[in-house]
User: Fold this.
Amino acid sequence: MYLFNSEIVNKEKLTQNIFRLRIKAANDFCRVATPGKFVMLGSDDSLFDPLLRRPFGICRWGTDWFEVIIKIVGKGSSQLSKLEKGASVAVHGPLGNGYPINKPENEQNTLILVAGGMGIASIASYLFAAFDRKQPLIGTFLLYGAANYSELILLNELTDADAFGLQLQTITDDGSCGRQGLVTQLLSHELQNNPQSQVFACGPEPMLKSVQKVLQKNECDGFLSLENRMACGFGVCLGCVQSMINEDDETSVKTAKVCTQGPVFPAQQVIF
Assistant:
């Protein structure tokens, strides 16, 4: 975990209110980044307004840089959106625990990645890490849903991944790209064909609730990356706690800190 001020080395506008930042980072930072981890970012010249940094998933990283994708939804993200190449940004991370990337030898090879809206930033971190390692993605499905075609960010980059064996399916609320409907419809269909799949999912809470129900119905295990609001990012403020089933006593409930114990949790443990 590192706390430092860094420089924006590239800024790319993806849609009217979504953009990608590439930020300089030390080699040590990049070596401990893994798919599903996140950082807390803040404008270095914000004069403590807002006081707290904002959490963003690490979408991709190299030897001395990492990327985040930011959607403007409030004051903090709006402030970050105004920063240009060469500007300074305050960074805290990498934080949290990401996706389990080492599967047991006897586990089925099929992996289904489910992304809803901005959840693609977290899910794409797994795929980009595989691309950069030139790792084959045979038996890997990406089910990607959004409100409409314009909200399907990174689509061109992910479509190119079919050379690695990735099977991409899109679905939109208005039918402007792929099928019309919800991404959980695609998940239900794929689990019928591949009932022993492992599932990673990230997106808004209503989507994750639906994913959890589909997994329960199909008696399938999976992992959910939660998007709870965070204040500190390192487990002090208790602002991001989530109710969980106690794995030691399934009749009782416990709370988990999403920032330090997550954001990725076994789907069957999360209580929405």
